[in-house]
UniProtKB/TrEMBL annotation:
The lineage of its organism: Bacteria, Pseudomonadati, Pseudomonadota, Gammaproteobacteria, Pseudomonadales. Gene3D superfamilies: Ribonuclease Z/Hydroxyacylglutathione hydrolase-like. InterPro entries: RibonucZ/Hydroxyglut_hydro (IPR036866). It comes from Pseudomonas syringae pv. japonica str. M301072. It comes from the Bacteria. This is Beta-lactamase-like protein.
Length: 73
């Protein structure tokens, strides 16, 4: 979604946690924020992974964006 031709917003759905994370990019500066990225957690092992967050970063890079902020709400 492009808002007023200034921002690009993508909602990214995580099927494991049923949560939505957002990528918000300023189209002029190509700076972006990741909002509510998922930290993958395996309850059996008690370990965490960053695969979901890494996919968000890869998506930002594919848009030519530079991740400047990560917000957790």
């Amino acid at each position: 979604m492009i808002i007023g031709e200034k921002l690009h917003v993508e909602a990214l759905f995580d099927t494991h946690t049923w949560t939505i994370s957002y990528l918000v990019m300023d189209l002029h500066s190509k700076q972006c924020a990741l909002i509510d990225s998922v930290l993958d957690y395996d309850p059996k092992s008690g370990r965490t992974r960053t695969e979901s967050a890494d996919r968000m970063i890869e998506r930002a890079q594919s848009l030519g964006a530079s991740v400047q902020w990560i917000f957790e709400t």
